[in-house]
Design goal:
Shape: globular
CATH topology of the largest domain: Purple Acid Phosphatase, chain A, domain 2
Strand content: 15-25%
CATH architecture of the largest domain: 4-Layer Sandwich
Helix content: 25-40%
Radius of gyration: 22 Å
Distance between the termini: 40 Å
Number of domains: 3
Order of helices and strands: EHHEHEHEEEHEEEEEEEEHEHH
CATH class of the largest domain: Alpha Beta
Structural class: alpha/beta
CATH superfamily of the largest domain: Metallo-dependent phosphatases
Largest sheet: 6 strands, mixed
């Protein structure tokens, strides 16, 4: 049997932004549901963080989620297995109070998993693992160790996997705990990565600047072969434009309508032409526009950033090569946290 796996949908994201919800809806209407219909999918596994805020959701966002996602699933008779993620749980130390259980009770086709549970998907035994916290950690690890299931699906925080393109998680459970499984699939981190056994499948759409041009979508999973095939989301929301005295008259701005755009200035010798370039972007009705002027490290400094390095790698190496007497690993950790928060701002 083939089923669909989706995760980290974050309904109500960015304070229930209409811009983001319109972008999300395009994915569901033009990618997700057409694929389910075409392939005759009757089962969907959602691996956590269905909603964005653990504290609540406003009526606008809930109505949107019902209209765009949950009602179409019910109308098609699709069975949904929904695993509680950290954004779904109200408290940080227990999953007992969670938004998906409270908000989706009217849907008899949706089963919510707030505790680790062994179940069957077709003829495949699967261990569902919701967000691990203080209350359920011992129970969860004990079940992981004794289960005979060959496949696990959940919302896991494991060390050594990419949170996004720039950042690798340096804390969490060790992946060796899951070596007994043939396949482990997880939500929580929004970018795709794997170690051959554990697969982080990533979320369906861009939500932050760190997501730019990173593959997004959902997956079709075969319960017999344990193979998973990505169905990519072709639609983007964030765009980087590199300005190098670019001719505004020849620059096509049509694809940037209702998009979040960052203009990174590499070369600007004529201010008037640059201003006309920016005016043309505004005329294209971009949703948001940021301008970043390139900075240059002073000639007296010996540090050189390599073209292939990402931002975090450059910062890490700069700190490592500095002559500070402070604890460098502490500084690097603080910088990573600040960088991650900054990337999540629009």
């Amino acid at each position: 049997m083939k089923l669909a796996i989706i995760t980290d949908t974050h309904y109500g994201a960015r304070k229930s932004s209409s811009l983001f919800h319109d972008y999300f809806e395009k994915f569901y209407k033009e990618v997700f549901f057409p694929t389910l219909d075409e392939q005759g999918i009757t089962t969907v596994v959602h691996m956590g963080d269905a909603f964005d805020s653990r504290k609540g959701i406003d009526f606008k966002a809930l109505t949107w989620a019902q209209r765009v996602v949950f009602n179409p699933l019910k109308e098609r008779g699709i069975q949904v297995h929904l695993i509680v993620g950290n954004h779904d749980a109200y408290y940080k130390n227990t999953n007992s109070v969670n938004g998906v259980d409270l908000l989706l009770r009217e849907y008899d086709n949706i089963k919510v998993y707030s505790k680790p549970t062994e179940t069957k998907l077709d003829n495949l035994d699967v261990l569902f693992i919701p967000w691990i916290n203080q209350e359920n950690e011992k129970e969860t690890i004990k079940l992981i160790e004794k289960t005979t299931c060959k496949c696990a699906m959940g919302h896991l925080e494991l060390s050594g996997f990419r949170v996004n393109k720039q950042l690798v998680m340096d804390h969490g459970l060790e992946s060796k705990l899951f070596e007994k499984f043939n396949r482990v699939y997880s939500g929580h981190y929004h970018t795709r990565s794997n170690n051959g056994t554990v697969f982080y499948l990533g979320n369906p759409y861009e939500m932050f600047w760190t997501d730019v041009k990173d593959d997004r979508g959902f997956h079709i999973f075969d319960t017999e072969t344990l193979e998973h095939i990505p169905v990519n989301n072709p639609f983007r929301l964030f765009y980087n434009i590199y300005y190098e005295d670019t001719d505004y008259q020849l620059f096509d701005t049509r694809e940037y309508e209702n998009k979040i755009v960052k203009v990174i200035v590499r070369k600007k010798t004529d201010i008037t032409k640059f201003e006309k370039f920016i005016d043309k972007l505004y005329s294209a009705n971009v949703a948001d526009l940021k301008i970043v002027e390139n900075f240059q490290i002073q000639e007296s400094e010996e540090f050189e950033a390599e073209e292939s390095e990402d931002t975090i790698s450059i910062l890490d190496r700069y700190i490592e090569e500095s002559e500070t007497e402070l604890e460098k690993s502490v500084i690097q950790k603080i910088i990573k946290e600040i960088y991650q928060e900054a990337c999540e701002m629009v």
